[in-house]
Amino acid sequence: MTDSQLYGGIEAGGTKFMCVVGSGPTNIVDEVRVETSQPGPTLERVIQFFRPYCDRSQVSTIGVGSFGPLDLIHNSPSYGFITSTPKPGWRNTDLLGPLVSALGVRVELDTDVNAAALGEWTWGATAGLNSSLYMTIGTGIGGAYLHAANPVQGFHHSEMGHIGLPHDPDSDPFPGSCPFHGACFEGLASGPAIQLRLGRRAEDLPDDHPFWELEAGYIASALASYILILAPMRIVLGGGIMRREFLFPRIRRQVLYLLGDYLPSGSLLESTESYIVAPGLGSHSGAYGAIAMAMKPADKN
Amino acid sequence: MTDSQLYGGIEAGGTKFMCVVGSGPTNIVDEVRVETSQPGPTLERVIQFFRPYCDRSQVSTIGVGSFGPLDLIHNSPSYGFITSTPKPGWRNTDLLGPLVSALGVRVELDTDVNAAALGEWTWGATAGLNSSLYMTIGTGIGGAYLHAANPVQGFHHSEMGHIGLPHDPDSDPFPGSCPFHGACFEGLASGPAIQLRLGRRAEDLPDDHPFWELEAGYIASALASYILILAPMRIVLGGGIMRREFLFPRIRRQVLYLLGDYLPSGSLLESTESYIVAPGLGSHSGAYGAIAMAMKPADKN
């Protein structure tokens, strides 16, 4: 038995489900990493991890930040489902239903990037900022623009990883890997795009491979669009590919070049070292952000 | 003398300053169109138009929706200035200062697209929607995403007309006309871009010219990015080029194609006729929107 209220957090990703119990980065009392296999066995292991905490009423709310696309429209028949994902076996999978029925607790579901953005805003690199952008660049590419703690979105959550980018087929003939849009940002710059393009995993590519300059250019091109549209006060770049720290100065340089002095002097862009940054929570933005989701009052979600 | 309070509205554009006095689309009591020459004489004629209304205290607030970029940061030394515009004579021009000092009234300044978006939200095609996007496609290209009545923007107003787009130099070798970004959206699809590309004014191009299909494609490409990032509940397309009504069905068709069924079924996109629409206020969105700016309580701006 613990004295203080605990919360569950799930970062549901294409390769793993990171599950944590705690009340913030400095108080994580348990965690488990579940490999993402097929939906049934994956969710069963997740449920096993949380069941004792829920049965003992130590955890009454679980936040879930999941890969997508997700149906988050409350009155939709597929509410809480992962919908048109290209991930084998996961298309049209009910994610919310099995967790709620097996554990009997409140489950707050949002996209993985919305969760990670909230984690960074609550405890990380964008803490308290009025506007911020979190991007994950890895197996997939996604982003969340927050106004204070709230994702800005209209009839659907953002899928900003799928925007089209300038792409010169003469200098880069790769047609892109996205099954929906071909050479969109994700189709040009995600981990699977790199594997399809170069025949080996992004993780195995040496730091001095010439491709990284192209990768930095595509990331910078997308960031320039987000800055022109949203003008966030800070941008956090997370995800597996961004563990290559040498990408950051290249991206910052190319963003400034692409914007071409169009935004006013004195703007935040002038000190790009503190404008385009790594996650303050390292690789835990998503899981801790899922806890932050659970900690939000129910009526605020 | 009038009984009811009146408001001033100025749509400050690259070719004309539309000035109106009234309290909404159904009560416009006076208006004048001032050609945009050099800043001094242009602003002098605008001031002459409003002076009697301000002197008689019939108008105590004027809203201004202006072309840009604008410096809207209150503590900036160039607050209220038009900054790095390519328009000859207008770079680093104080717009707010002369109006305030000559007329002695409150002047609310925002971008032309923010004003037009607010006009459409107050009285037009997006009235009352929780999220909406207004685009102007003409001499310049700009857009405003509103959350209810408020523009969503971070450290700077949106400059979404300048995003990069997929652009195949083999099928379209035009290098773009934007002095800052070359082949950005505005550099590919604005009025000046059309004139530079084809050697004649967009207004003089016949409806059956094959270029219009390319134009619709670039507009659709940009809209697809805005939808993926912002998912607005409705998009209004205004500006001179969008007076060609045949562009709307072509744009709608290409947007659906570009999104590639990625967003969920049941979404607003399924009825594109009511999703991508013409302005409800015709060519008056900006001027009436400037009145709506003036009508907002001062502490709400």
Number of domains of chain A: 2
Instruction: Enumerate the spans of chain A where pLDDT stays under 50 for 5 or more consecutive residues.
Output: none
CATH C-level name of the largest domain in chain A: Alpha Beta
For the biggest β-sheet of chain A, the strand order reads: 3-2-1-4-7
Number of alpha- plus pi-helical segments of chain A: 8
Protein structure class of chain A:
alpha/beta
Question: What Rg of chain A, in angstroms, do the CA atoms define?
Answer: 19 Å
The SSE order of chain A reads EEEHEEEHEHEEEHHHEHEH
User: Kindly state the mean pLDDT of chain A as a whole number?
Assistant: 93
State the major sheet of chain A: 5 strands, mixed
Annotated CATH architecture of the largest domain in chain A: 2-Layer Sandwich
Oligomer: homodimer
> β content of chain A, as a range?
15-25%
Q: Tell me, what's the shape of chain A?
A: globular
Which range best describes the helical content of chain A: under 10%, 10-25%, 25-40%, 40-55%, 55-70% or over 70%? 25-40%
